[in-house]
């Protein structure tokens, strides 16, 4: 019995030492137990996206802040991160991890109300409020109102890809963002719309969603480096089962008519949160956008790449003087082109050789080859017919 007691005391001592050495800044925590003003719920979550169990908040106290009265281990969001989190033990140290909130109703403060009349319909797609301020490579920092259809796709707490909102419940992205294919565990994924920066939260502008369905093009082959049919759909719903609400920072992009193309040299825009310099390891903190010019299919196939690399299902584009381009982390994001003051989604950022490398234009999935595929899987033919595209007399 004495031996058991000694072991328990030693264990407690070690736990205390580790808790004291934990040096995260808890200066934003004001309430001892609730922490972020959340009300208690029957569906409290205390499991992270990695499956770890949260530790009680009162395990961590220092000279300035005490959580001695906070015995629960429920997920909270005291510092307004992208979603609630908690502290877990990983490899003998304490770290933050985002929580698995797939089935929990966690709402940002003052979220936009999901009124069906305020959803972005096919008749109002492609509209935006331009608000560009000051680098996607060689580009400029952009406020999300300039690219209100941009989606940030996260796996756990890590950004993996971009996407484009094409209907209130549907985001179009790249198939290669989901290497697990049909085996992808969609509950680990979340989608944010209206996001200016990937590590900041603006509860007024942003809308957060779970992924309720993933559709990867059946012709995409994960076993090769061929990016043919690099297209996927995400069906998104919030914690109340609702879809995106139309605001200045969240809008849909229009889909052009089937097989519609623009002339070589036409300028379009790309946007994303990916790496902002060649060989860089860090993603851009802020949303960025850049202008790129469409490259002829003939030049792309014969001058810059080969016919094995570039087929009829892709298009190519490059920045002026090869200085603007998409990069890692931008995959799945939009290439949108303005026609009659309306933004149409012509391409999905797919691949390229390095980033902004001379004579290596970016390669984009040609959206107008997939109107029927999109319509079949979304059940929204009105969104894929291209009704807002100007018709020839």
From TrEMBL:
Keywords: Disulfide bond, EGF-like domain, Hydrolase, Kringle, Plasminogen activation, Protease, Secreted, Serine protease, Signal, Zymogen. One of its GO terms (molecular function) is serine-type endopeptidase activity. It is found in: Secreted, Extracellular space. One of its GO terms (biological process) is regulation of cell adhesion mediated by integrin. SUPFAM superfamilies: Kringle-like (SSF57440), Trypsin-like serine proteases (SSF50494). Pfam families: Kringle, Trypsin. InterPro entries: Kringle, Kringle-like, Kringle_CS, Kringle_sf, Peptidase_S1_PA, Peptidase_S1_PA_chymotrypsin, Peptidase_S1A, Serine_Proteases_S1. It catalyses: Preferential cleavage: Arg-|-Xaa, Lys-|-Xaa. Residues 32-104 form the Kringle domain. Residues 105-126 are annotated as: Disordered. Its EC number is 3.4.21.4. GO terms for cellular component: extracellular space. Residues 1-19 form the signal peptide. Residues 115-126 have a biased composition (Basic and acidic residues). Residues 136-379 form the Peptidase S1 domain. It is an enzyme of class 3 (hydrolase). PANTHER family: TRYPSIN-RELATED, UROKINASE-TYPE PLASMINOGEN ACTIVATOR. This is trypsin. It comes from Sinocyclocheilus anshuiensis. The gene is LOC107655433.
